[in-house]
Sequence to fold (827 residues):
Amino acid sequence: MLDVKAATGGEALYETVADAASIAVVGTAKNVGKTVTTRALVRTFTERGATIGLTSIGRDGELADALDGAAKPRLFVRPGMLVATAREVLARSPGCEIVETLGASALGTIAIVRVLHAAYLEIAGAPTAAGLRAIVARLRAHGAMPAIVDGAIDRIAALAGGDDAIVVATGAESGATVEAVARVAADLVARLRLPAATDDERAACDERIDGALDALHADRLFASVAGRIVIVRDPTRVAIRGRTFARLCAHVRLRCDRDLRVVACTTSPLARGHVLDARALVAAVARATGCPTFDVLAGLAA
Amino acid sequence: MICDDFTAERIGLAALLAAIAPVGDFGRRYADRFVPYGPGDETRATTAIAEVMAIARAMTDDGVAAIRSALRAVPDPAPLLARARGGDVPSDVDLYELSRFVASLARVRLACEAGGLGGDRMPPDADDLRALLAPGQTSYGFALAHAFDPRLAPARAALDAAQGRLDVERNARFDALAEVLGSRPHDDEFVVLRDAVAALPRTVRIVRETPTYYLCTLVLDGTLLANTRDRDAVFDALANIEEEVRARLGDAVAAEYANVLFTTDALGALDCFLARVAFAQRYGGCTPRFAARRVAIVDATFVPLRESLAAARRPHIPIALAFDGTAVLTGPNMGGKSAALATCAFLILCAMYGVPPPAASATLPLPARIAWLGGESSSDRGRLLSSFGADVVRAASILRDDVSQLILIDEFARTTGPREGRALVLAFVRALVRRGSVALVATHFDGIADAAEVTHLAVAGIATTFPAIADGDLTAALDALAAAMDYRIVAVGSQAAPRSDALALAALLGMDAEVVADARREYER
Fold:
C-alpha cells in the first residue's frame, strides 16, 4: 500500500514540474479536475514570483461548461501573468495590456495579454496543435516561464520536447470505482509515455505509421512477425488502448519520433453521480501509473 | 473581360497576375478594382509604365523587397473602423490592432525613405490616429492607460486596494482555519477530510458532502462580505469608466474613417505599384510606344516560357519581330511559332496592366481584347466539338466581335483536309485584313501571306545538321534541337522557298530511319 501523505494544495505538484518550460494538464475525461489542477499550478508558481503564461485548448475558466452546463471552476489571474485567449471572451474590465494578437480560434483572434489587475478570466485558446505550439512559443518569447496549458490529449503533441511536462488529471468521472479510474489513468499514461525511437531503432525501423495507429493497424501488426520496430510520430497518434495497446507493445517494438514527458497525475474523487474515497484514489492512481499523484484540493500526495 | 479563359491560358494571364500579385490585403483590394488599359488609355498607360521603369531602375531589389515586406505586415483596420462608425465600442484588442496599424504604417514610410521612394508614392502618415492612441502605447503593445482619463488611475488603485483588503481578510480566515484543520486552504473552494476534524468551524460552509470529505467554502459574512461588496462595487465603477474611455476613443477613431481609408487606399496603390516594379526588376522591361496597328518587339520574353525553361535548366532565347496590321508566321515544328504568338500577346497584356513589357523595346497596340484561335480547350470537349469544329466556332466569334482586338491564330484549320484548310485560312486572313485587324497568323500552309498580300514572317529554322542521337534519348534530342534551331523571326520575300524541317525533326525525335527516308523520297518526288 502506497503511503498517502498530506500535501498542501499544489505545493507538492509544483515540485514535480518546477523545471518545465511548459506544462500541459490533460484529462482522462471531462470534469476530472483539469482546471482545478491548472489553478493550483498557477497559484504555486505565482507565489514563487514566476511570470507564468496561461492558455487552453478550447474553452476554460467559464462559469459553466459550455457543453453540458455543469458548474466550472473559474481562473483567477494576478498582475504580471501572461494569458493567451480569444478576443471574444477576453474580459473588458479591468483592462489588460495587449501585447500581441495571432492566429485565430473558433472565437476569433487570439490575444496575448499581460494582466494588470487581479480578475477572473475565461480562457479560450487555439483549437489546433499548430496554433497551440505558436501560442506557447509566443508566451515564452514574452517572458512566460512556464507556459501552462489547460490541454486536450489529442493536441498536446505540439508540446513534445525535453523542457515540457504533462500532468494527467483523472477522477471519478472516468470510472465507477477506484480501480476503474486507476486503470483508465494507467492506460493513458502508458500510451503517453511511449518511448522515443533510438537512432538504431530508426535505422532498423520496419514500419512507420504517419497517421493514427488504429485497431486495423494493430490487427495487421498482430499477424506480422513479432519484434518488428514500428514508429509513430508521437504518442497521441496511438488510437488503441487498454489490452489491445498492451498486447501490441508486447508483440512489436512500438516507438515514437517525439516523446512526451508525463511527470505527475492529479485526482478528483467527485463525480456528478458518485463519489470515491479520496485517499484510496490517490494511492491507486499512483500505484497504477507509477507517477507521483496528487489531490490538490484535499491536499493529498502518493 | 479582356480575353476568354482559353486565350488567358495560352497567353499567360494567370502567370502575369501571379507575378504582379500584391502582398497585402489593401493591395489585393486595389488590384480587384484595377481596370486594364485599353484603346484611348495610351497616355495613361505610358505614364504608369514609365514610372514603374524609373523606380525599377532607381531602387535596389532589396529596397523594393523591404517595402513590400513592411506592406505585408500592415493589419487591416477597415472592419474595426466600420464597427466604430456603426456605434460599437472598441475593445482593447481593437485599439491594439489600430495602434499596430499606425506602427506598421510608420515602418512602411521608413522603408520608403530608406529605399529612396518618396513623392506621391509615399503613403500619408496617420498623425491624428497616432496622437489619439499614443497614451496607450507600451513597450510591447497597447493598454487603456491612465493617461486617457484622469479617473482611471484612482479607480484602478481603488480596485487594487479593495482586492488587497479582500485577500488580507480571506488569508486571515485561511490562516485561522489552518490551525483547526491542520492544513491551510488556498482557494475559494477547498476540501476537508472527514477524519481530519471532529467538527467544521462556523466560518466554513459545506458545498458538498461525501462519505470521505467535505467540499467547503468560506462563509461570506461580516468583514469578508463587506470587503467582497466593496471590491465588486469598485470593480463596477472602474468598468464603467473604462467603457466610457473606450467609447470616447471609438468616436474619435470613427471620425478618422475617411483619412484611414485614404491611407489604406494609398497603401494598396503602393503595393500594386511595387509588385510591378519587382516584376520589371526581375524580368527587365521597357516603356512601350503605342501604335494602333503595329507590333514591333526586340529581345522580348514570354515569362511563363522563360520560367518553365529555367525550371528545366534550359536557356530562354528572347525573340524579335515586327509587322503592321496582319502578318503570317511560318516555320518548322518546335521552332517557336506558338511562343512568338504568346510573346506578342503577353507583352500587350503587360501594357494593359501597366507593367513594363519584358523586352528591350516594344511598339504595341493597346486593344480592348485579345483572342487566341487554334487548339482545343476543355470546354470544347465538353461541347463535343472536334478540334476543327471548335476552331470554326471560335473564328466565327472573333469575326463577329467588333471591338478592337489583338488576334493570335495558331495553325487554324490544321485538322481538316489540306486543300480546304488552306482555303479557309486564306479567306480568314483576307477577312482580317479587310477589317483592319491586328493579327499574327501561324500556319504551315504554303503561300498564305503572298495570296493575302500581308507581311510574311518566318522562324529561321534548323541551321545545322543534327549530331547522331541514341535511340530514345529525348533529352539529348531536345538539346541537339535547341543547338541547331535558329529561333530568329525574319521577314521573308514573296518567293521564299518553303522549309522542310519536319522530316529532319522526325528523324531527330526517333522516327525509324527507313520511314524518314521513304518520306523524304515521297516529298521530293
